[in-house]
Design goal:
Elements lengths: L2 H4 L2 E8 L4 E5 L7 E3 L4 E3 L6 E6 L2 E12 L9 H9 L3 E12 L2 E4 L10 E4 L2 H8 L5 E3 L16 E3 L1 E7 L6 E5 H5 L3 E4 L6 H13 L11 E5 L4 H5 L2 H4 L5 E5 L16 H8 L6 H17 L4 H20 L4 H14 L16 E5 L5 E5 L2 H4 L2 E2 L2 E2 L2 H11 L19 H17 L5 H4 L1 H12 L14 H9 L1 E2 L2 E2 L3 E5 L5 H21 L8 E5 L19 H13 L1 E7 L7 H5 L3 E4 L5 H10 L5 H4 L9 E6 L6 E5 L13 H5 L17
Parallel strand pairs: 14-25, 14-26, 15-23, 15-24, 16-23, 24-25
Antiparallel strand pairs: 1-2, 1-9, 2-7, 3-4, 5-6, 5-9, 6-7, 7-8, 10-11, 12-13, 12-28, 17-18, 19-20, 21-22, 26-27, 27-28
Helix pairs in contact: 9-10, 9-14, 10-11, 10-14, 14-16, 18-19
Length: about 675
Amino acid sequence: MIVDDKKRVIGKIVSINSDRFTIELLSGLKNFNVNGYDDIHYFAQINSYVIVPYQNYYIVSEVVSVREKDTTFNSNNIKEQELNKVYSTKYLEVLPIGTITKEKFIFGASVYPTLYSDVLYIKDDELDLIFNINNIVSKVCGDNKNTHDDHSECPTRLNALTIGKSAIFQDYDIKIKIDNFFGGHSAILGNTGSGKSCTISSMMQTLFKKENFSAVGASFVFFDVNGEYKQAFEKLHEVNDDIDVYYTSIEDIDNPFTLPQHLMNVEEWELLLNASEKAQLPILRNALNIASLLSKSADDENSAEIIDHIKSVCIDLIIDGEGNDISKSSKITTILRAFSTTTFNLDTVNPAQATFNYTDSRRNTTNHSFSIKNCVHINFGEMLNIEGVKELIDASSFIKDNIKLFESSNIEPFEFELLGQALELAILYEEAHGNNQIRNYCASLITRFKSLENREDFDFIKEKITITTDEYVEKLFGVSESKKKTQVTIIDLNSAEDEIVEIVSSVLTRLVFDTLRKAVPRNKFPVNLVLEEAHRYIAYDSKRTFLRANQIFDRVAKEGRKYGLFFTISSQRPSELSKTVLSQCNNFIVHRIQNPDDLLHIRQITPHISETTLKKLPSIPTQHALIFGNAVNIPALFKVNNADPLPNSDNNEVSTNWFVAKDKKFILFSKESDE
């Protein structure tokens, strides 16, 4: 033990358990403080620290309990009783949390001291080792500087970010390591109104305030389901003109959010249309391929050939099936009008028979061109030449025995309305192969599609624009002409139903993930997706019917780090979140949580956090949080730095809104109501 250490002994270890030990304080420390050679030190405050010398390092321990020995006083003198009380034996219960060795703090303790070891109060320089993160700012000089140059003019970058002040130790900044926090998945948890949105806003504002060598390469995409962050970030560009914010909303007139439906894969269409796996999903897959083929059949010979084959099989079914000629003629005409190709349409003529005879209503026998339009023409309730249609199909060899349907899984751009026609053709094709019940099985699928077709809130997927995945993602990130113009993208989904939020979040996450997987070099374009109210769309629920589309969140949680894609999850119900996603989080910022299920869930996914630490969570005040993970040196309770401006999430002052002048005008559902 160093000589100076003898001067700051406050007690001895008298009991050692598997996870903690007990300290008996010296009898003269009546007020739980000691006048050290540098300052007055208070050592019995809950969550404060003491240290124990052991070999060549110090064991840092957290105070979790303070008590005194029960003493029976026989004296009737009140003053004497009080004096005896002051000088009674006092104890501290402490948990080992780390070690200090060679001027470095290491979180985690694998050894325990011996019985009757001395216990010391902690000094300021030791607190500095615990809380401070070295190299907060580093010089970035490039290749034009050598060791003999003056580096004072070099720009700087941040390696750590100050997010608040310690709630236990005065004037100690709580910092996070940028690479560890934003280079991994993180979770910000807490009850509604506990300060989650303010925490995120404050962190982002602090990050982007640095000028000169700014974080222009950052890409944050907010799924803002409560419409909070536009207000928080609208002045970022004024603070730092290197940084720009891109805002889009489903309801925004000037810059509406769009997600072209051809960018969706089959699993996402399945989610959108609630397609059942056994009966409806195969039809949906075929319909998507048919719609893709139809969109390019005019320019692609192979696509036209497949469409002609499908039409011919369906028309054969109609001709041989039940129903009168009027109905059959109508169906055939509808198919050929809706799915016309240059080779097979209403004007197509049998190459082997140019004309045919028929008797009209005047009993005149005339010759007509052998076109399908003429063959299916109704005369006296009958088609004029129904057999001629079959002859034409046979003569033209439209039906192929060895044709391969839908080899590609890629969905080509097509208009939303075209999918309805493709669904009908896919059902007809299935009926032609003997599945007479398929139309009944797909009735709900058709109904769902027609409903979406008429819903205005789904117009964002019906935009008739052709754009590739890479182009769409580049626009999302504000990459134009190889320059990064946008650092924060806010997708306002405040007015969207849960099904829309679920679709948008899963599709965008997949698009970004697929794009980053192809990037060369890999992992050089970091992207952080901020998932606000994440329990709404990445929930863990074994009763859900459609999980495949949402499996992208689990996959990104497990594989995203390799490609530079990271989650920042914000939720008030951690117990309802995907266990896979939450278990992959490296850092946690936890505000007040009172629900027992949520507390238990946090305990299960963070076994390294002590029970004592978790007991703090129900009583954390607003704007305070507990942070732990690899981005900080040690779990710490801190007060979050103020956000300016605040997100649009202020608590409602009910009494202020209740007690108003009786002639006050109330305006609902108007953007001018706040004026």
